[in-house]
Amino acid sequence: MVLPGEKSNGKIYIGVVGVGGVGTHFLSQLSTLLPTQPRLRIALITSSTKAIYSTSTSPSTISLDNWRHDLSTSNSTYLYPHLIPHWLANCPGHAVLVDNTSSPKLVEETYTQCLKNGISIVTPNKVAFSASQQEWDDLQASSYPRNPDGGFLYHEATVGAGLPILSTIKDLLDTGDKVPSYPSTFPPHKPPEIVIINSITPNQITHISGVFSGTMSYLFNTFSPTSPFPQPQPWSTIVRQARSLGYTEPDPRDDLNGKDVARKLVILARLIGLSVASTDAFPVQSLIPAALEKQGGSADEFLNKLENYDGEMATLRHAAESEGKVLRFVGSIDVATQNVKVGVEKVGKGEPVAGLRGSDNLVAIRTERYKESPLVVQGAGAGGAVTAMGVLADLLRVVRQVPS
Ligand SMILES: NC(=O)C1=CN([C@@H]2O[C@H](COP(=O)(O)OP(=O)(O)OC[C@H]3O[C@@H](n4cnc5c(N)ncnc54)[C@H](OP(=O)(O)O)[C@@H]3O)[C@@H](O)[C@H]2O)C=CC1
Ligand SMILES: N[C@@H](CC=O)C(=O)O
Ligand code: NA
């Protein structure tokens, strides 16, 4: 295996896992890019049932011209996750795992092993980065530069899809943004599960807040619009629309229960120097009706039952309307008080988050330099194409750092 620092044959071998909404857009965007990236070789494409491999030493690796057909007619069955690191390690150049799934099993069986073997990972999959703090720490320790022989690890699309949120925060931290002075002691009720892992460093960011879910943004922009006409459709109808638009998690319940936003806030909090035990370390408001919380079943079965609870959401909306407000699903991190929270809020129609459209995210970051007027990143935060762009941009970050 060729490590990031070692001289390789100059080629970069890509293993693509997952060809759903994001994965298909990723492959489509990659095929457009390939003619300008002669070093790239597609070494593996696997769905949850089928796989196509190139023989890793063969120069004629997989063509993207007819990958759907080639995959569906492939005689090769799906590559079990635990075999992926070995397979990529046999490539004669630098290898990159592109994980376009939401699979915890894939994370568990490939990430650390890949990184420690110098295989890079780019992914929109939040699971690895929002599990335990220890797992986060292990990923950092296994990957470059903390591990000089480790693979690169990029996950820009885990927060705000292709929006440059993680890269902006990295720039702020790298350029040592200063923060206002904090009280010498933290509030006595400081939640034990969220702590600043080091004293307030000069480059700590102080607040991050906004709308972090493309699905929830679309749902509330449509269900609780600033203009009263036309009459919004029922909540469950709009949830189905969000799913068909490719915004939701593979299971929309992971959006509605606030878990997806919680995952993103855990990733952001850890990135700016907070140690967060888990997504259960802070209050997360779920919009799953209580009666459906404990019921299993498929996503389709859930959506059919959700129709019976449209009235509950309509009541919430009417309460906001009576105050001349709209509903938005927001999240926030306050470093000084170490408070992290996720939930529905009534917001004035003139508020920035009230004006969002479609799957827009809006993330406001406050630091010393951006204290009075926060640094704001806004735009589509969900959708296959805008997510795939973030994954592809991360791949190019790896390409630029691998010696040719
Ligand atoms: N959609 C969006 O706007 C955004 C998505 N993301 C993240 O991107 C990831 C993918 O999302 P999206 O494409 O929308 O989801 P999809 O459900 O459309 O696609 C996921 C694909 O992964 C496949 N898959 C699951 N496990 C494996 C495995 N072990 N090996 C190979 N394939 C597997 C699934 O196959 P099968 O269906 O057969 O199980 C499915 O085709 C998720 O982690 C999501 O959180 C991040 C930002 C935005
Ligand atoms: N389901 C998520 C996808 C992007 O992270 C969302 O709606 O934001
Ligand atoms: Na992003």
TrEMBL record:
Active site as annotated: 264 (proton donor)
PROSITE patterns per UniProt: HOMOSER_DHGENASE (PS01042)
Aspartate/homoserine dehydrogenase NAD-binding domain: residues covered: 18-140
Cofactor needs: a metal cation
Gene3D superfamilies with a match to the protein in the record: Dihydrodipicolinate Reductase, domain 2, NAD(P)-binding Rossmann-like Domain
Gene Ontology annotations of biological process type: homoserine biosynthetic process; methionine biosynthetic process; threonine biosynthetic process
Binding site for NADPH: 101, 126
Keywords, ordered alphabetically: Amino-acid biosynthesis, Membrane, Methionine biosynthesis, NADP, Oxidoreductase, Threonine biosynthesis, Transmembrane, Transmembrane helix
Binding-site list for NADP(+): 18-23
Pfam family, one: NAD_binding_3
Molecular-function annotations in GO: homoserine dehydrogenase activity; NADP binding
Binding residues for L-homoserine: 249
Reaction catalysed by this enzyme: L-homoserine + NADP(+) = L-aspartate 4-semialdehyde + NADPH + H(+)
EC code: 1.1.1.3
Pathway membership, UniProt: Amino-acid biosynthesis; L-methionine biosynthesis via de novo pathway; L-homoserine from L-aspartate: step 3/3; Amino-acid biosynthesis; L-threonine biosynthesis; L-threonine from L-aspartate: step 3/5
Domain Homoserine dehydrogenase catalytic intervals: 199-396
Similarity section: Belongs to the homoserine dehydrogenase family.
The protein, known as: Homoserine dehydrogenase
Gene field: HOM6
